[in-house]
Fold:
Amino acid sequence: MLPKRVMDLPGWAPQPGGAKKAGDVFPTSTDDVFIESVITYVNEHLIFTCKFRGASVFYDFPMLDQETANKVAAILKDHIGKTLTSIAFAEIPEHKAG
Structure:
């Protein structure tokens, strides 16, 4: 059964990652970053960016499957400019019976 909210997905809350140089600071809370863009779904991970202190930070969020990734990507796109926390309680639409 598919989790009902984004925060119920395994791997919530996704952690920031990507290249880092000396002196870089990564965010420690989903309240500190603002959703910027959805990049892609690859190898069972949804890749997206958030803004933190004016810089883009990459996130790698494990997904259950392609359909769930598409739904979470749509939620992220609907929340661009809002905090990553803002999607935690967003409901994931049910999978259509096929």
